[in-house]
Design brief:
The structure holds 2 protein chains of 2 kinds. Chain A has one domain. In chain A, 80% of the residues lie in helices and 5% in strands. Chain A is built from 3 helices and 2 strands; from the N terminus they run H-H-E-E-H. Chain A has a two-stranded antiparallel ribbon with strand order 1-2. In chain A, a hairpin with a 2-residue loop joins strand 1 and strand 2. In chain A, helix 1 runs antiparallel to helix 3. The two termini of chain A are 18 Å apart. Chain B is mainly α. Chain B has 2 domains: 476 residues, Sodium/glucose cotransporter; 51 residues, no CATH class. Chain B has 23 helices and 4 strands. Chain B is globular and about 80 Å long. The N and C termini of chain B lie far apart (55 Å). The relative contact order of chain B is 0.18. The model of chain B has no long low-confidence stretch (mean pLDDT 90). Classes of the chains: A mainly alpha, B mainly alpha.
Amino acid sequence: MTTRHAYWKANKRTMLFLLAIWAVVSYGCSMVWADSLNAIMFGGFPLGFWFAQQGSIYIFVLLILAYFLIMERLDKQFDVHE
Amino acid sequence: MSIMTWTYIMVGGSFALYLGIAWASRVRDTKGFYVAGGGVPPLANGLATAADWMSAASFISMAGMISFMGFSGGTYLMGWTGGYVLLALLLAPYLRKFGKFTVPDFVGDRYYSTTARIVALVCAIFVSLTYVAGQMRGVGIVFSRFLEVDVNTGVIIGMIIVFFYASLGGMKGITWTQVAQYLVLIVAFLVPAVAISLKITGIPLPQLGFGARIAEGPDAGIYFLQALDAIVTDLGFTPYTQASSGMALVNMVAITTCLMVGTAGLPHVIIRFYTVPTVRAARLSAFYALLFIAILYTAAPAVGAFARYNMIRSVHGATYANVPSWFKNWERTGLIAWYDKNGDGVIQYAKGQAIQGKPVFTGQTGPHGQRLVSNKAADGPNELFVDNDIMVLANPEIANLPAWVIALVAAGGLAAALSTASGLLLVIASAISHDLYYRVLNPRASEKSRLTVGRIMIGLAVLVAGYFGINPPGFVAQVVALAFGLAASSFFPIIVLGVFWKRATREGAITGMVCGIGLTLLYIIQVKFLGMQPWLFGLAPEGVGIIGMFLNFAITIGVSLATPPPPEAVQELVEHVRIPRGAGAAIDH
């Protein structure tokens, strides 16, 4: 029972950490701060615009990959894998 | 060979492929029919989910919408991809572990209530039906534009194809045709995208070309986006890359959130995660799905920006006599119209409407050979009406690509519309045949009769979808976007609470769902159709789902705390779905 609770806690921590990045990238970099970030050029892209139309999507893909990899480790560590 | 011949070959060939796949994957049991037997490999499920997800709107309309919206087009790009993060982290693994057939299955079992199951199945039908009507219309429109058949004939051809492969193979047939449809649509989208990027910047990858310097012409050597900003500013628009502020920013936040949460709550996407063998496979296929979606979604904004630049550079200030041939080709289809306000024979493009409403052609031609419209001129200097869809549809011609590429775009648009339609039809059919008929009305129904009812329901759903495709209620186009608000305010909160909060009760979930979707629906109907003033300083109806979602969360939590906790067995079920081990067994019940 305790392993299960520890597993669930670790899972929730991972999830909240990744969702925090998700929120900062989509609401912060791509919307609220976009105007200030646009003053910075990233190659030929104003940075805020790049986040809103390119960067956020790449980061979303990486977040799901990170979740998959971290959970695979946690599953084994807590011996709940299939 | 002519464009038409190529189109018949491409469309006919792709249809034959789908039918062949369907025949090879026909099924004989309900597990195959509803969840493809539960043995789809993660990579295949990722491909199928991507095709399921990307509809006619993503393929044909999105790049065009972005090209006219500029920065705030990010709303759609992020809204329709960011939802997968929520789906992968909050829903997919747990629903896979739960492992039954439909979304109402989860709601009914988790909330130990037939009423909850029925409320959920009504919500599922409602969300999916609004969405599928738009897809059938999309099939008809692609047919009429590329093959010059009547829109209604196109809808009927689409209905027959979808009925055949969905009823024969159920989820299994749908899954494997969607894999093929993804490949068709992504190639069809990327070939013109790469060509236009090469043409303007000399860099083949549109995602990079978008941020590179222009290779030739009057703006050679300047960063593409800087040149585009300067050009649109000259014509009176706000700069293309300028960030939103004020109420526009508030609406961007609201609509993006609504699309993200709605994506995670759409039943036709959720059920794809029942088809994989393990919890690990569900997590992995969520990654593959977003990866494959991202290939199109990162190319689309580049296509939109390139097309906007190309259109302005080649048309604005040109005499009608000298415009490129694609302009006249698409004028013939009514997607472009030119109203020569000052009678100088030169096309002027600027901010604002050219004419009032959509063009109505008189059948006569003007002094320069342009098709005349009977619409009244709108105020302002703009003389050019351009339909958003042109940005994708005319792209191959603008980039001077051969006829077979244009035909490929037609096949790609059809693949996008058909793959989404088939996923939605299965949700509607399973809500009635599995959740209502088998789980509520006749729990002792035999395997064979359940399968027969499932097939009949696919047939009925196709007929209803086709009816709406042929007689679209005037508001269909708007309603499709609103399906997200309905999904966000009904399913998402109660599934998340169902997994993460053992204390959530059936009374809470039922009142939460009813109030959430009820508020969203009422607000949309009142603002869109009854002329009510928007609340909260002008919150767009597309963004109201976020308020419905919070209301659903608040009511579910409040009512749950005021009612007795769920029975022991349900709390054990929640414990059970949180642990990956044992998922393989869970599906056999």
